[in-house]
Amino acid sequence: MCSCFMGVDLDVTATPQHIDNYSGYLTDQFLTRAWNKRTDKYGGDLKGRMTFLFEMMDAVRAKCGPDFPIILKITIDHCYPENPEYRTLEEGLEMCRLLKEHGGFDALHLDRGCYEKYWFQIPTTYEEKGINLDAYKQVKAIMGDIPILGHGKLNDPAVAEKAIEDGCLDIVLLGKQLLYTARQKDGVLTLDVPAEVATFRTTIEDMQTLQANGVKTLVLVTEKNTTTLNLSLLCEGQKSGTRAD
């Protein structure tokens, strides 16, 4: 919880503090029946299991003051029906209702999945675009004016824009997608790939999307070499889900 106070003494009041309560980490363990077997006030029903989070939120707010922006990150659905004690979307939505009732935060960062279903947290090449948006929209309907942040295969600008237009999210979050510096000129898209990125993975569907946006050639530039890909040759006769490494 100490990280929640970073920046306070420096009076960097425009820097939001992120309180993480997701993916099986400590606070998520308190929130989840699979791990929380306590019989005191910190266990029991959902509201009891949320007591630790509420007390932590209140402590952060008391330390940071009423005007300091606080963002909560929560897992709304572990996506693991094989274990009924993991969080379902139904319970996640109820958790959002209780969070809204309690207050004390300024925005909500949504997450789905768990270690057993990691591809909801960090979607692979094979997951559909906007994999989490249907669930996010249900949360947004509950939270009203509280800003909702979300991630999950939103690297297609059209999908990201539609997520906001459709009321699924207020802010789209990107991570790995920002590792590459992209330049486009005359049908050639050049990506500068950082040295720490071991591989470049995409699908034929992604390449077909590039083609639809006027890209004919993809150039990957690393410190050691340059690779040029002709999208027409790569995509010809291929199925959309085919992986291209």
Structural summary, described in words:
- This protein has nine helices and eleven strands.
- With 245 residues, it is an alpha/beta fold.
- A hairpin with a 4-residue loop joins strand 9 (217-221) and strand 10 (226-230).
Task: Write the topology of this structure.
Elements: E1 17-21, H1 26-31, H2 46-49, H3 51-64, E2 70-77, H4 89-102, E3 107-112, H5 118-121, H6 133-143, E4 148-150, H7 157-165, E5 171-172, E6 181-185, E7 188-192, E8 202-203, H8 204-212, E9 217-221, E10 226-230, H9 231-235, E11 243-244
Helix pairs in contact: 4-6
Summarize this entry quickly.
By secondary structure, the chain is of the alpha/beta class. The chain has 9 helices and 11 strands.
User: What is the mean pLDDT?
Assistant: 86
Content of β-strand:
15-25%
Number of helices: 9
Report the strand count.
11
Q: What's the Cα radius of gyration?
A: 21 Å
The N- and C-terminal alpha carbons lie at a distance of: 40 Å
Order of helices and strands: EHHHEHEHHEHEEEEHEEHE
Quaternary class? single chain
Keywords:
245 residues; alpha/beta; 11 strands; 20% strand
